[in-house]
Amino acid sequence: MSTLQSVRGMNDVLPESADIWHFISEQLRSLCNLYGYREIRTPLLERTELFKRTIGEQTDIVEKEMYTFIDNNGESVTLRPEATASCVRASVEHGLVHNKQAKLWYFGPMFRHEKPQKGRYRQFHQFGIEALGWPGPDIDAELLIFASRLWKRLGVQSVKLEINTLGSSESRENYKNALVEYLSQYTAELDEDSQRRLFKNPLRILDSKNTRTREILKDAPNLFDYLDDSSLQQFTRLQAILAKADVQYTVNPGLVRGLDYYTSTVFEWVTDKLGAQSAVLAGGRYDGLVTQLGGKPTPAAGFAMGIERLIELVLLEGPPMQSILPEVYMVTMGDLAELEGIVLAETLRDSGIRVHSHFGGGNFKKQFKKADQSGARYAVVLGETELQQQMATIKDLRTESEQLSVPFQDVAKYLGRGLDTNC
Ligand code: ATP
Ligand code: MG
User: Fold this and answer.
1) How far apart are CA 356 and CA 115, in angstroms?
2) Start-end of H helices in 155-275
3) For residue 422, what pLDDT band results from cuts at 50, 70 and 90?
4) Which residue in 220, 233, 211 sits closest to 177, CA to CA?
5) Which pLDDT does position 417 carry in this prediction?
6) Which of 128, 127, 157 is nearest to 313 (CA)?
7) Does residue 237 register a pLDDT over 70?
8) Once rounded to an integer, what is the mean pLDDT over residues 348-373?
9) Is the pLDDT score of 321 beyond 80?
10) Counting atoms of ligand 1 from 1, which one is nearest the CA of 281?
11) Ligand 1: residues whose CB is within 6 Å?
12) Which terminus in the chain has less CB density within 10 A, N or C?
């Protein structure tokens, strides 16, 4: 029979990679505790309407990347392509932002039907934090300070921060009109994507990598000339806080996010170590989102980080990952020793010692071979002689030191102290 493979763009995390996933999620959780963020878990499936209304109908995500289907009740549902909309939906639904503020974090899979390649998958994972109820820019700065502490903890050095401000939705609208008017003179010369975006999502054209489009953009109206005072002040203050906190950044006036809900401050941490998939963490302010989902006006800001890209970076630049190996491999010979071995293994685990028991019998040679392959430091051996004497044999599998005979109840104590101490 033919074998079955996973769905394209959706990866298995194999045991050999599990340690780094745990390492990263533990670091993230402990940072969230340091800064006072609490976890929220929302369903992977949401009503399609949620994403259409928030991310925007004319964005790449909603236009072509969503996993949308009609369920058995005839309702259109979508596997979440991102989690900010869900966090806000849940916060409004459960009153988390009703005359209150909320600092939330999440970690989990997201789904986008993109072209799979290195660093770009159809099921991928994001960690994100959302601060609901603060107008900024102080909290926006803290989001970036949080991220920069994360890079330090993980030993990631190649990431660089880019920031920009998009202004209020009104000033952005004025700018959009001016941009469209200017670019319309060059419609035929723009690259295909930009032509498509011209009337649908013109700000995204600022992001184009096409040489001719970039040339045309040089003389385009400047977003900064259209910004409202309040956004400008926020942006200046944000920069002052970042300077004080020693967070390096550059202002990138071409930085526009691919989701419609962003307002004023936006940012991205990018790296040159991951090829075309350069964005690792991205976010900004989304002051209109809570009202868009039926809540009272609530300022908000947050970011999302791609875990697969982060893991690539940590593997390249971070500390060497040590996998968690067993400390003891339990070798037993005969039915009685097997029973005794089960009890002894449990006693060792009571002391926090990682024990792999041998299963399936076999002679000593076979069992020692498995013990060696397991990576364990010690073999604890129970055979006929050991049972008669009520002593276990401890053998150091990694050095030439002599094996020891130890009363059952003292094995944990011996292992805790190492084999070369007399106890
Ligand atoms: P990109 O420009 O790479 O398409 P994006 O702007 O679509 O990213 P966001 O929606 O802001 O990304 O998501 C935040 C982060 O999630 C990205 O910076 C990236 O690290 C990660 N990410 C986004 N899409 C994918 C994907 N398909 N596979 C893996 N990681 C992804
Ligand atoms: Mg994308």
Assistant:
1) 42
2) 169-184, 192-200, 211-218, 229-244
3) very low
4) 220
5) 56
6) 157
7) yes
8) 94
9) no
10) 18
11) 82, 112, 114, 119-121, 124, 126, 258, 277, 279-282, 304-306, 308-309
12) N
Return the amino acid letter for 242.
L
Neighbouring C-alpha atoms within 13 Å toward the C-beta of 282: 17
120 strand-pairing partners: 117
Tell me the best of 130, 259, 308 to mutate to test the pocket of ligand 1, counting ligand atoms within 8 Å of each CB and taking the most.
308
Give the C-alpha separation, 290 to 92, whole Å.
7
258 — pLDDT class (breaks 50, 70, 90): low
Tokens 């109840």 label which residue?
409
CB of 47 closer than 8 Å to CB of 77: yes
How many residues belong to the chain?
Answer: 423
- Kindly report the average pLDDT of the chain as a whole number: 92
pTM above 0.85, yes or no: yes
In this predicted structure, the answer to whether residue 172 has a pLDDT above a threshold of 90 is no
Q: What does the block give as tokens for 330?
A: 């339990």
Token pair for 241: 């806080």
Mutate to test the pocket of ligand 1, among 160, 256, 277 (most ligand atoms within 8 A of CB): 277
pLDDT of residue 418: 46
Looking at ligand 1, which residue's alpha carbon is closest to its atom 1? 279
164 alpha carbon – ligand 2 mean position (Å): 18
* CA quadruple 241, 244, 249, 250: dihedral, nearest 10: 80
Tokens of 343: 């009890």
pLDDT digits 0-9 by tens, 121-138: 999 999 999 999 999 899
Ligand nearest to the CA of residue 303, numbered in listed order: 1
Rg (CA), the chain: 28
Any bridge partners for residue 328, and if so which?
355, 378
Q: How far is the CA of 401 from the centre of ligand 1 (A)?
A: 53
d(CA 156, CA 350): 37
Given the structure tokens 């032509």, which residue do they identify? 195
Q: How far away, in angstroms, is 255 Cα from ligand 1 center?
A: 14
Residue 295, C-beta contacts closer than 8 angstroms, at least 6 positions apart: 88, 91, 92, 97, 98
**pLDDT tier, 307 (very low <50, low <70, confident <90, very high otherwise):** very high
> For the segment 224-236, what is each residue's pLDDT rounded down to a tens digit?
888 889 889 999 9
Going through 226-299 in order, the beta strands assigned E by DSSP cover 250-251, 263-270, 279-285
